[in-house]
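User: What would this chain look like folded?
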Amino acid sequence: MIQPAASPPAERFGRHGTWWAGLALLLALLVMAGFWQSLRVWSYGLVRQAEIWHTEWRLSHWQTLDNAHFRLYYPPGQSQEAHLVLSEASRALVQEERSLAVRPEAPLVVVLYASQAAMNRAVGIAPGVNNIGYDDNGVMDILSPSAWLGTSKAAFQEFAVQGPVDHELGHALLNLKADGNYPNWFNEGVAQYEDYHATGYQWITPHNRLTGAVYSMPELNNRFYQLSNQALAYRQGLSLVEYLETLKGASGFHQFLGHLAKGQSFDFALSSTYHIASTEVLWQHWHHWVNPSAS
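Assistant: Here's the prediction, encoded as structure tokens.
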């Protein structure tokens, strides 16, 4: 480390003085880092709460369904679908609270949209994008099952398996637990993990095999949502989360999330929980685990 030009020569302090000066500087840097990290976590929670308040104000004229855990907003003509979504969310919450070691203190906000266009406008997504769910700063946006599956009994049964409720609830609870203190691949990996264990669904295509060419960790860390093969990126995110679960089980994963919830860095949480120095080292271990013949 380069000392400032105005600093006195190290010899003036003697050996012990130099050691204490270095320690004092290190402690000061740690305090500053902790302050800014705490400020980031606090500000993220404030933004999330502001988004919830704005949503409730924006949709104050909509009908609502409420229970102890959720407040669901829905437009006219969607009562049957709203009851289905609330039922699915309540069912999913029981398992996901245990899985992510988090218990919401206030009802989670869910918004049901009758059409893809209406949801895209509200979320700020391009009109041509098709997606059946979003998590927007802790608000769960769900496309009505009647908009993409129909209104038959069979369609509603299919929604329980293919619907976005488990996935988006995973996002919302992770957001609440750790205030966005994680990379995008982990966010999507956790949401898929919750969905998979509840419904058995995985996004599998002929072009997202993990035994061929895969994305590097810098690519996943820095450009996750911009990567051309989103199916591969998502599958890698899920597989990386599965790998972490194999290392120390649920208790280890809860410890890892606890570090993130305290505002500690992702690499610090990896090192403290799994003795893995960084996400790059995690990627190396994972790649050997998922494809040992490539090592």
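DSSP finds eleven helices and five strands in the chain. If you want, I can go into more detail on any region.
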